[in-house]
Amino acid sequence: MFKTINIIRIVSIITAVLVINGCAVNLAEKNYVQGVTQFSQYGQVKGEIDKGTGNIIWRGIKYAKAPVGDLRWRAPQAPDSWSGVKETKDNPPACAQGSNASGEEDCLYLSVYRPSTVDNNLPVYVWIHGGSNKTGSAPDLSLFAKNSNLVVVSIQYRLGPLGFMNHEALKTSDPLESSGNYGILDQIAALKWVQTNIRLFGGDPSNVTVAGESAGAHDILALLTIEQANGLYHKAVYQSGGMENVSLKQAREFSTQFVEKLSLKSTGSALAGDLRALKVNTLLKAMPGKWRFGVVTDGKLIKGNLLCLMKRGKYNKVPIFLGGNRNEYSMWLQWFGGPERKWSKLSRTLRRKRAAKISDILNDDEQKTFAFTSSLTSRLWVAQLVHSVARYMREYQDDVYVYDFQWGGTKGSNVDFVLGASHANELGYFHYGGKWDWMGRGLSLTKDNEAARLALSNAMMTYQAQFAYSGNPNGKADLPKWEVWSNDETGVKTMNLDTSSEPGSAQLNLYMTKREYIQAKLIQEMDDSNDPIAQKFTKMIAKHKLVKLECE
């Protein structure tokens, strides 16, 4: 029944003996020895020493064949072995994405980062990037690997209609392949590669944390519900989970519209062949712009709404580290435009030269409206996609650790007002040493707040590294104790992650809170508001983003 999805595992067993230069090499007898050249199940790879961190990095290790031609919209297949030593020093091409068809279909690669030490059996941290499951690529996580003393694996997976499409013509005898969740199958294949190979890079295959942000976090929830992924990881990190499930009916409607837009008239296997024969740029140009690429609830691989599965306890109950940001929705408010499109003009205040004043765009009352709308919509996001997940999981397990990321730049600055602790901003602190500001164009990174940023990032990296080691963010570091989420009304809930805005200060604002956002209460807060503009736009966003959960 699961023939296709298991093919990589079968090949892993077969290639436990690797033939190199005509000689059989038993991989079971090989171990990591400090250096840039290492064995893997498909051949030897040669990385390099990173000039910035001193880490050893192997970039672009192939974990599956190029999903092109007849392999397009198929479960990932094991790559061919190679002879000699393959150099893995260059970043792999991103997976094909966007209407301009940037990237390539031959993109199923992963990169490995580790400290240049003799250490073996280090914990392993596998990262699944965000981007609405339709954009993005494997990021460089060398700094995080060094500071946390981990073996870090950053993976790529098929995106958009190439990774998430369910059409009747593409069905095969394998129900998992027929699910249409090709991107998720890629992630499972990458995790299987980790189980077979990571020991040869000094990692411990029995101590793997799988982690993701935004759509990557959405995919983490999916992996938690997939029986075939059990045992491939042992802990999970879920940061700012976004995206909604796509029902089988919705997925079929999308694929029908997609094929119609391609003007293909064939049916059945002939249609599948015609689809696979099209150039990738032709396919992506036909992609409907507003379609969502959440996982497809096909009933076989993804057996139901992910939140409902959490609520019913139908998931793999591993230790989990999760959270959201104070201003998750701030950047979308600008894209929505606001009244008279004024909110979209706020980006003018984030210019390095000749920046506009906020008061030039919004008067005092309009500023209050924007701030309230940003706060309320962001709390609605966290209520549904973070705090409800924590509450559901806490019914079935103890080890649920939740954060609220609050830092968005110096308090009172333009960037803190316009964006604040925006979606994805926590990545700069968990992974990049407080030196990365995605939406704020670096404006939140000032000399005055450098000590605060570095201290906050060090604390956040330490918490997450300790979680990767033991499944508990607490450890030897002298940091405030992180309590598990409590479902009691008066119990502690989240760790507040923030720092001082005083120039030169490195004082941290880390403490447990009783903060829990509940969707019904927030909707009532919206209804009780005396601000009709905030009500209007919050309702628009709620209709667009929030899902009424109806679990059987």
Description:
The chain has about 550 residues and is of the alpha/beta class. The chain has two domains: about 5-250 and about 295-305, Alpha/Beta hydrolase fold, catalytic domain (Rossmann fold, 3-Layer(aba) Sandwich); about 330-545, no CATH class. An eleven-stranded mixed β-sheet has the order 5-6-8-10-9-11-12-15-16-17-18, sandwiched between helices. A three-stranded mixed β-sheet has the order 3-4-7, with no helix packed on it. A two-stranded antiparallel sheet has the order 1-2. The longest helix has about 30 residues, at about 365-395. Helices cover about 30% and strands about 15% of the residues. The protein is globular, with a radius of gyration of 24 Å. The two termini are about 25 Å apart. Mean pLDDT is about 90; it is low at about 1-15.
Fold topology:
Elements: H1 7-14, E1 17-20, E2 23-26, E3 37-38, E4 44-46, E5 48-49, E6 56-62, E7 85-87, E8 109-114, E9 122-128, H2 142-148, E10 151-155, H3 160-163, H4 182-197, E11 203-213, H5 215-225, E12 235-239, E13 246-247, H6 248-261, H7 268-277, H8 280-285, E14 296-297, H9 306-311, E15 320-325, H10 330-336, H11 358-361, H12 364-394, E16 400-405, H13 414-418, H14 427-430, H15 450-470, E17 494-499, E18 508-513, H16 519-528, H17 532-545
Helix pairs in contact: 12-16, 12-17
